[in-house]
Fold each of these.
Amino acid sequence: MRKTWFDLCLLGCAALITALQFGLFPTVFEPGWAGVIALVLLTTVTEPLHNGLMHESIHSNLLPDEKWNRFAGRALGVTLGLPWETMRFGHLAHHGFNRHDFDRPEALAPGQSRVLAAAVYYFKLVIGNAVAYAIAPFLTAVPIPAMKWVLENVDRNPESAPLRVAALRAFSTPAKRHAVQFDLAAIVALDVLALWLWGAWWPVFVASIVARWFMLSLLDNAPHYGMPLDSGLNARNTRIARWASWLVLNQNFHGVHHHYPLLHWRDLPGKFLQSEERYEGGWLGALLRQFRGPIQLS
């Protein structure tokens, strides 16, 4: 129960920041450069918390009642601009098919142009991952045969065949398609409302979304960057200041999470100590390491 109450407090903080981002700020305060810059920085710094709470809902750890857990997760996804069902599929695929073809953006194939690979890689690193997550849900708006054609042609790597089959099976079901379509409609409606509330200051709202997507993309592959293609359940566990651990919901223990995906985020440090594993550098260092660019992986 203590975990639930703490998570509810964090959820309340995330909800307040999101409300300010989506129009409460210009409604309550007179916008000024100092205030709006502080707001954009706040939304950027707290993106790991926002996304982390959604991540907990994906693993059914956020709220004990599954209906409310799913509702909270979908609300977090809508305000991030990313439908929960597609994010859930992508994350569970990350667990089930770790280092699959879409899950190793830094991998440089033999004979591949390093310049071209770097251009694609750095775009993904700074915002491309989030853009892909935002575009993918629109496949549920087209007929199933068209969705199947796209899934089969976007990547013909035989290694990705099980993932394509799983995606087609999941998003051919009416319930999931309707849920994603509803969330997309909610995202558009909420964004239009936010732009109207911000008025002449609408670029601030756009900047806050871009900033959050930048942080999401930067965090996406950080614990796996440079790891072997056959790393399986392994991922890096990194150090972070204790006071900041709640901000990332202990996802610096990403290796522990991969081995015990059903553990609540507050249980990860204890499991790490029990495992006798070692830290592989710091959390911030893992983020910055990615800027080395594409590399050949064993």
Note: The chain is about 65% helix and 0% strand.
Amino acid sequence: MTGTLVMRTLITALALLLLAALAGCDRKAGDAPAVAKPATARPADPSSSETSESMPKIATEIVSERPTESRIVVTATVHQDHHLLAQVVPRVPGRVLQVLVHVGDPVRRGQVLGILDSLDVGEARLTLRQARIQSDFAATEYQRVASLVEEEVVPRKELARAQAERDKARAAVGTANERLRMLGVNPDRTPADGNSASSFALIAPLSGVVLEKTAIVGEIAASDKSLFTVSDLSSIWVEGNLSDRELGLVRVGADAEIRVDAYPDDVFRGKVIYLAGTLDPTTRTVLARVEIANRDLRLKPQMFARMAIATGNSTPKLTVPASAVTLVQGEPTVFVVDGGGFNPRPVERGEAVGDRVVIRRGLAAGDRIAVSGVFELKAKLLKSQISDEH
């Protein structure tokens, strides 16, 4: 009984201590809470401790006019280089047996694109086979007669006759070979399907990409119809139209820069290789062609592009680094140093000149702008605008 009484006394004491602790917590919770101050949007200040901790050091530049090579900018279209384009056409009519490639497939020079069957090819192969057999027989006969002449068994005139027959048979083999080559068939290549003498292969004449395929299995292919179009896209053409005034400022060999929407941050450089000799009577413009190296195959035929051609003339223009311009609410914007911070200012962009951009409106010479950390400034601006809305 005494042990039980001691245990109850300890439990009661612990309960009282727990109640006292909870009462203390309630009193702390009842204190007046601190009122949170609303956040305010402030300009990014590189000298403030907040900016230096949350943002990298921002490089700036004073805007000034710089000698800039004048450029003519026109819309253009990407085309395959016609010097690296091949239409694969059978030289004789034939039925399509197999189609081995499709549009977009890369192919190598000499690769089989399709297999056709032609009676003309079959007849030419049989003629070659007969000519070879006759040539082998004539060569053997010549050797036999030559040995008999040495033994004085037959007169020497028999040797001359055997030699003539041998040369005639060899000529027939050469003629049969040329006949097959004229039909577009390699006489040393075995029939395409392994057993039919009338089958032959259509071969890729160059390495590239299949741009078009009209071959259909079972169809009779005509000798004037292209079944495959193959193009080497490692070099492409970009073509645009110049007005009369622009034509006078452009020359063959001029540097050109190409930009496409698919790769907005990339510039493809080339040179003007062709200016048309006459004006288009409908548009009153002249075709200008620029050749571009395209080894990574990023530029595709029929892409729209912007073509900037250097004129060779230099004029002072207000330019800023391309990294200084960003889109804010859909408008090109730069961040201008204003007091202790950066304020966004909408601008009107002009043409790109290397890694710089011409500014037509919105800045003046002497303005100091941010040229690095622009993304962080934009994020801070948007954050402050969201805070103000709430």
Note: The two ends are 69 Å apart (CA to CA).
Amino acid sequence: MTRDPFAPLETARDRLDAGRPDLALAALAARAPAATAGETAFLRAEALRAQGYFRRAQAAYREALRRLGREDRDLALEAELGLARCARSLGETGDARRAMSRARALAPRDSAEAAESLALEDALVERAAGRYLKALTALAPLLAASRRRRDWSAVGFVLWATGGARRFSGDLAGSHRDFKESLAAFRRAGDREGQAYALFGLGGIARVRGFFAEARAAYAAARTILSGGPDLFGRAYAHCGLANVLRQLGRWSEAERHYRRSYALYAGLDDRVDLAYVDWGLGQVHLKRGELPAAERRLRAALAAFSAAREARGVALSRQSLAQVLHARGRTAEAERLFDAAVRGARAAGLHAHLEIYT
């Protein structure tokens, strides 16, 4: 019997829809007809992004766009949106905006679905850029529209995005409410991956509000959902979030173990910003244990990575923590300059990171 040359593409689509991007990649390893090279590259990019391989996904999306040319505008639009999502996830908001500009040029003018997808991604780019009030304004009508449609996965996602923007704009109680509602919506939709990310948001906001039992339970539940699955980014995030809670509870050896597991996963994904947050967390562990030279090394590594990525919140947190280490090591004048820079930078970016003593 002759093998269907298009079967690998069909299998890959089915596996992506079933939440198994790892199996989709395996299906795409088979040779496909030259005429499907653009779609094959696109599906490979989608599978890589779903696992957290954002930089490898970017390369695959670009290959898809080269091979698609102008004949498939719908798929080219999805590829540009994929590029924007990867760049936004990596904190590269300038690249994300450029991809969004190209996506808008490809979008059909009479498609309400395309307009909503573009509006949502625009809001998420504003959120990633630290423009939280602008993001909240853009997300509000999208939340209302998804509620009218009774699309509970969409409701959960928009509430998740809203909760993050509220948290970093300083509305902690509002953020806590959003993440609880996001989790309820994802549960209503039967969306387990969505539930995991709502639990991440819930764990983060509960932690910074001092509700450590709630935070630990949320991260543990998210970890259970994602355990052994293909979402490597989510698994890394779960370890890092749990480590943050354990650190705040004074359980520093346990926290260090989870940070190191998170670090290994993020390193495999080449996720430099999130690696820097793990470095910052490990620096905090060393500081609490009085291991000041080790704390300084970790915090300087975090500060360098955050500065290179223009991650304003990470820069502020690293400067503030490093100032504490330098003061403890007797370098008070240097510490004062660094602490002042942390406050100035946070305020200039519209952040409250300099007040996050609870973090």
Note: The mean pLDDT is 93.
Amino acid sequence: MDADLALVLGLIVAGFSIPSILSALGDGRSPRASMVTILIAGGLIIYALVTKPGGYTLAQVPEAFIHVIARFMP
């Protein structure tokens, strides 16, 4: 897995887990599964930052999304 793919997957998983956390807290439940997904997302993001030489700047994040999407589009 390359760094761009790990970054994009980590950000997408983190984005989807935020509504799950808010829903669990609103219902008075413990957000255990959501916290596990946040840990997975954080691990993917850290992996991407460590494996790419020089890391990422904020301006490079949209470029990473475009590169990953372009790789899977026919």
Note: The chain has one domain: 3-72.
